[in-house]
Design goal:
With 498 residues, this protein is an alpha/beta fold. Helix content is 35%, strand content 21%. Strands 7, 8, 9, 10, 11, 14, 15, 16 and 18 form a nine-stranded mixed beta sheet that branches. Strands 1-6-5-2-4-3 form a six-stranded mixed beta sheet, sandwiched between helices. Strands 12-13-17 form a three-stranded mixed beta sheet. A hairpin with a 5-residue loop joins β12 and β13. α8 runs antiparallel to α10. It is elongated and about 80 Å long.
C-alpha cells in the first residue's frame, strides 16, 4: 500500500473515495460538511438524515456520489465519527482511519483520500496515527489458507490531505511509521503461526534472517552454552521437548556513542502444554502458540529499531523453548538452580515462563545495561485483573514507570501500572529451597512479578504482563481477529523517547 501526504483540502480533492473525520454534533451539516454538501448536490445532507449520523465515535456512513450528481470527479464519500472533540486522542484517529479504509474496501475502492482535523493534535502525530490505523487495520494473514480470494479489492493508494505543512517531513514521517508497522506485522505473524511452524529452531532461523537483513549483531546460545552458564532454570523447562532450546540475543548498535543501553527481554515459549501440571480440559491449550508473544514483541521491536536507528544501544533477548510432556519432563517437587545461584522448588510446571525469564534477566543484567524491560504472556491472573485489552506494568522505578505509561499513551498499546507489593513474596517461600515458582491464587500476577524480581540485583527494571492483549477473538478497532502485535509500538516509542 502506498501512502503519501498532499497539499489540498477535501473540497478540491478528486479520486475514488474521500473519508472525512467528523466530530460529534447534533447538527453535523453546520460544520465543514456544508461546502462539500453544496458541491455534491446535497448528498451529504441526505446521508446524514437517512443514517442519523452525528459523528459519534465508531460510526461510519458512506454514499456513492458519482452517479447521483453531475460532478463526476469523486465516486464515494465516507463520513467517520470521531466522537466529542474534547475527548480526542491519537487512538481516535487510528480507529477512525481503519474504519474509513475498511469502508473503502467494502466499496471496492483501491484509492482513498483522508481528511481529518490534524490541527486538533500534533499534525505529525496525527499523520502517524492515520497511517498506523490503515496499515494495521487492513492487515490480512492468509499464509495458511488454500482458498484465498484473489479478487478481493484491497487499497493500493492512500492520500492524507493537508492544507499546509512540509511534504518532505510528512514523507519521512510516513516512512518511519511504516517501518514501525513492519515490526508489528512480524510480531503478529510470529504469534499467529501454529506451533509446528514457529518452534525454537525456526525462531532462531528467523533471528538469523533478521540480523542479516537489518544489520543486527546476533548471538545464539545452544543447550551446551546454556549449561556452561548454569542456566538450570531455563533448561529445566526445555528438558522435556525433543527440540533443542535456543537462547537468542540480538543487538542493535547505533553508529555513534549510544545515549543509553537498554535490554528488552521477551518470554519465548513457542508452545506451553503446562508440562506435567497439564492444562485443564476445556481450557485454551490450542492457544498456547501465543505464549511467545513477549519474544514476538521484542523481535518485532528489533526489526523496527534497526530501521529507525535511534542513538540507543538495544539488546533483544529471549530464552526460547517448548514446555512439553515426556519421561524427561520437569516434575512438581523438583528443585532447579538458576544462573545467579538461587534455588527454586517447582510446585507448578505450568508456571514455566518465569523459569525461563529468570535466567534471561540474569543474562540481561550481566550486559551492564542501564534499564531492563521484560514482556511476557505470564499470568491468567493479569487477564482477570485488567481484561483482554490492557497490559499490566510493574516496576520499582517511578521514572521508568512514568516513561512507559507515556509511551503507552502515545503508542496505543494500553498499559496500567500495578502495585509492587513485596510483602506478597511470603507465599513464594519454600521450606526446602530459596523460593517456590508459584504462589496461591491471590494476587497471582503480583507474586509472579516478585519471583522475577529475585533475578534482578540493582538495574532499573520493569515487567509487563501482556497475557490479555496479545490476541483478540473479535475485530477491535484496527486489530483484526488474531494476533495484535501488542508491545512493539510501546517498546519502540519508549526507546525513541530516550
Amino acid at each position: 500500500m502506498n501512502f503519501s501526504a498532499v497539499l489540498t483540502n477535501a473540497l478540491n480533492w478528486t479520486g475514488q473515495a474521500l473519508a472525512l473525520g467528523v466530530f460529534e454534533s447534533d447538527q453535523p451539516m453546520e460544520t465543514t460538511l456544508a461546502p462539500l454538501n453544496d458541491r455534491y448536490g446535497g448528498v451529504l445532507a441526505d446521508l446524514v438524515q437517512d443514517t442519523n449520523f452525528q459523528g459519534k465515535a465508531h460510526t461510519v456512513a458512506s454514499v456513492r456520489v458519482g452517479r447521483t450528481t453531475a460532478v463526476q470527479d469523486l465516486q464515494h464519500l465516507i463520513l467517520v465519527g470521531l466522537g466529542k472533540a474534547e475527548h480526542l486522542k491519537l487512538e481516535t484517529f487510528r480507529v477512525a482511519a481503519a474504519a474509513a479504509a475498511k469502508q473503502a474496501q467494502q466499496r471496492r475502492c483501491n484509492q482513498l483520500g483522508i481528511s481529518f482535523p490534524a490541527e486538533a493534535l500534533d499534525p505529525f502525530a496525527t499523520l502517524q496515527a492515520i497511517v498506523e490505523g490503515i496499515q494495521l487495520g487492513t492487515y490480512r494473514d492468509d499464509r495458511f489458507r488454500s482458498d484465498v480470494d484473489e479478487s478481493l479489492i484491497t487499497l493500493q493508494e492512500v492520500l492524507i490531505l493537508q492544507e499546509s505543512g512540509d511534504l518532505a517531513q510528512a514523507a519521512e514521517c510516513i516512512t518511519q511509521t511504516l517501518q514501525l508497522c513492519s515490526g508489528v506485522t512480524l510480531a503478529r505473524q510470529l504469534v499467529a503461526a501454529p506451533p509446528n511452524v514457529v518452534t525454537p529452531l525456526t525462531m532462531a532461523a528467523m533471528a538469523q534472517s533478521l540480523a542479516a537483513e537489518q544489520g543486527l549483531q546476533l548471538e545464539i546460545l545452544e543447550k551446551e552454552d546454556c549449561e556452561a552458564r548454569k542456566m538450570g532454570s531455563f533448561l529445566s523447562v526445555a528438558q522435556a521437548s525433543d527440540l533443542p532450546p535456543k537462547f537468542i540475543h540480538l543487538t542493535y548498535q547505533p553508529s555513534g556513542t549510544p545515549r543509553r543501553k537498554v535490554a528488552l527481554v521477551g518470554k519465548g515459549l513457542t508452545f506451553d502444554s503446562g508440562g506435567l501440571n497439564i492444562k485443564v480440559a476445556g481450557g485454551s491449550m490450542e492457544m498456547m502458540k501465543t505464549d511467545m508473544g513477549g519474544s514476538a514483541a521484542v523481535f518485532g521491536a528489533a526489526k523496527a529499531i534497526a530501521q529507525l536507528k535511534p542513538d540507543v544501544e538495544v539488546h533483544f533477548i529471549s530464552a526460547v523453548t517448548e514446555n512439553m510432556i515426556s519421561g524427561r519432563a520437569l516434575r512438581p517437587g523438583d528443585i532447579v538452580t538458576a544462573s545467579n545461584g538461587k534455588t527454586i522448588e517447582v510446585n507448578n510446571t505450568d508456571a514455566e515462563g518465569r523459569l525461563t525469564l529468570a535466567d534471561a534477566l540474569v543474562f540481561a543484567e550481566g550486559l551492564g545495561v542501564d534499564t531492563i524491560v521484560d514482556l511476557a504472556t505470564l499470568t491468567g491472573a493479569c487477564v482477570v485483573a485488567l481484561g483482554e485489552t490492557i497490559g499490566g506494568l510493574w516496576t520499582k522505578s517511578p521514572d521508568l514507570g512514568e516513561q512507559l505509561i507515556r509511551a503507552s499513551e502515545r503508542s496505543g498499546d494500553p498499559l496500567w501500572q500495578m502495585p509492587f507489593e513485596e510483602s506478597y513474596f511470603e507465599v513464594m517461600k519454600s521450606p526446602v529451597a530459596d523460593m517456590k515458582n508459584a504462589g496461591n491464587r491471590a494476587g497471582g500476577s503480583i507474586t509472579a512479578t516478585l519471583f522475577l524480581n529475585q533475578f534482578i540485583k540493582e538495574t532499573p527494571w520493569a515487567h509487563i504482563d501482556m497475557a490479555g492483549p496479545v490476541w483478540t477473538d473479535k475485530e477491535r478497532g484496527y486489530h483484526p481477529v488474531g494476533a495484535t502485535g501488542y508491545g512493539v509500538r510501546l517498546l519502540v516509542n519508549w526507546i525513541l523517547s530516550l
